[in-house]
Amino acid sequence: RKDVTGMLDMEKLGKLAESFGFTAWGELDMSTLEFKPEVRDMCEANTCGQWNRTWACPPACGTLEEMREKVKGYHRGILVQTVGQMEDSFDIETMMETAANHKKNFDALWDELRKEWPGLMAMGTGGCSRCAKCAYPDEPCRFPDKLCPSMEGAGLVVNEVCTANGLKYNHGKDTICYTGCYLLD
């Protein structure tokens, strides 16, 4: 939201993020976004199984240079996090539940923010799961207005982005944290 001078009111925006169920948030300084080839190398190793399988993941989501170009027009943004408290480090159920809550809340806040910033860019967590089977590479994305690369897929080291913006990434023993961001103006 903007105040009467037209400036972005981060506190109000943060409270909005909290009202959508996010555990933590922080202002995103665009100068902290470093798109790194080593992150893309990890993507290409295909540990998650999404490399070259969806429009939202590399290489389809664009090169590092294309990502750098996409973010050039943005000057401010917000990071949002969902933190889950696990029973132990093997609590897969809490990991999955926290991820699902993050995705649901991320999409809902995205819809709300687009009312004021229709051209915003979102980068989420993990690959796109909107369709049971992605149309990639045979057909265009079925929901291009909802296409959202992950921060990692874009080439960002999420921990570094959080730290550079004063937002904790590690929230303590037996926690899981999912982070996404919205680039607003």
Low-confidence stretches: 1-7
Proportion in β-strands: 15-25%
Q: Can you tell me the overall shape? A: globular
Q: Work out the number of β strands.
A: 4
The end-to-end span amounts to: 11 Å
Would you tell me the overall average pLDDT? 92
Specify the helix fraction band. Answer: 25-40%
Q: Give Rg in angstroms.
A: 16 Å
Number of helices: 6
Order of helices and strands: HEHHEHEHHE
Task: Provide structural commentary.
The protein is α+β, with helices and mostly antiparallel strands. The protein contains six helices and four strands; from the N terminus they run αβααβαβααβ. It has helices spanning 10-19, 37-44, 64-71, 92-116, 151-154, 158-164; strands at 24-29, 76-85, 121-123, 175-183. Strands 1-2-4-3 form a four-stranded antiparallel sheet, with helices on both faces. The chain is globular. The N and C termini lie close together (11 Å).
Short account of what is shown:
The protein has 185 residues and is an alpha+beta fold. 34% of the residues lie in helices and 15% in strands.
